[in-house]
Amino acid sequence: LGSDPEGSWVATELPDYYAPWMNVAANLPHLIEGHQLRREMPLLSTQYLRGHRQLRLARLALGFITMGYVWQGGGRQTILPRALAVPYCTISELLDLPPILVYADCVLANWKKRDPCGNKPFNSAGNLDILFSFPGGDSNKGFFLVSLLVEAAAAAGIKVPSPNEIARGQALRVKCVNPGVFFRSLRIYLSGWKDNFLMPEGLVYEGVWDSPKQFFGGSAAQSSTLQCFDVLLGIQHSAAQGFSAEYLGCMRDYMPAAHRAFIQTLASGPSLRQFVLATGDAGLHAAFNKCVSALADLRSYHIQIATKYITIPAGRCRAEQQQLGGCVHKGTSVLSERGTGGTGFMRFLKAIRDTTRKAQLTEQ
Ligand SMILES: N#Cc1ccc(NC(=O)NCc2cnc3scc(C#CC4CC4)n23)cc1
Hints:
Oligomer: single chain
Low-confidence stretches: 1-8, 165-170, 326-342
Distance between the termini: 53 Å
Largest sheet: 2 strands, parallel
Order of helices and strands: HHHEHHEEHHHEHHHHHHH
Bound molecules: the ligand N#Cc1ccc(NC(=O)NCc2cnc3scc(C#CC4CC4)n23)cc1
Number of helices: 15
Structural class: mainly alpha
Shape: globular
Helix content: 40-55%
Strand order of the largest sheet: 1-4
């Protein structure tokens, strides 16, 4: 278990019985690039998994293997073999999460401290590493760890940060993620099989369900932290173009059950917004608007990132393929189906940012 002063946050090991899962997940880039990720895998029982953390780690390993198996080599497998499907769906049901890789897997559970016994803070530069990767080298580490460090910094906003935590937040080192690698590799492996023209029926989970099932791919909209802030500040996203408000609501089913319940509790509790308005206190009013403004800035930054990592590489990809006279290869991921050059995904991000901006309390 990843040991740390606050107790072990994540499991980093499973009982040896699960070595077949852990070995395949740990060697995924090599197995995919060597076309060696095959159906053969022993059907293991989930009965030897102990506790929430081991269930999350097992789900993380099976999630990476599932995405790697489905999207290996640029193609797609539409049937998930029972040796993966049965344990993956069993564990997913126990955790009340869908049987597809989600943000809470590849960001929140996919890390370990390089120096587990030391007292270096959680996010001290260079002390973190990821557990599993897709093809794409260090861009995996940059992408997943930057997202994790954003979560760690934002978490301080949900509980009263100590001065030390604020100081630590500055240690957030932005790691390099290659836009081309992100667009051509990482993004593909995070793709889902709902609203995806490459898998119009969805995925058959062999030995679990008779018919194929559809699930959304990974997205930052699955970050419970971000949705917490929206709810806390009373920011309600209407049916934004390209995505519906239901998409954001649906993403709560892709969050850990405890996070989902916390957001629901915030949403059904007294309105902070109404409280601040009722006090008529100028200082509170200004502080509330400062929070709304910071969230809008984060949304704007996300748009800049999506432009750099999806819109621009997608434009280059289209130009290259048109030069080659080939058909334009549309992205396969939820990120790309709506994130390819001003399409629904960008409109969605802009609508979300604009709704956030409008949530400022107007002058009294
Ligand atoms: N499953 C899953 C899962 C889904 C999303 C995330 N995180 C995330 O999008 N963070 C933003 C980010 C931080 N650094 C970098 S480089 C490229 C990006 C990007 C992007 C999208 C296109 C907007 N980013 C993590 C896991």
